Amino acid sequence: MLDIATGDTRSKMKLAPRVGAPVTGAVVSGAGLPRMLIISEGRRHLAGVDLEAGEVLWRYAARRAGVLRLKRAGRLLIVSSGEQALTAIDVVGGNVVWRHCDRLRFGQAATVADDSLFALAGAVAGVGDARLCHLDLWSGAPASASP
Question: What is the phi-psi region of residue 59: left when phi exceeds 0, alpha when psi lies from -120 to 50, beta otherwise?
Answer without folding.
Answer: beta
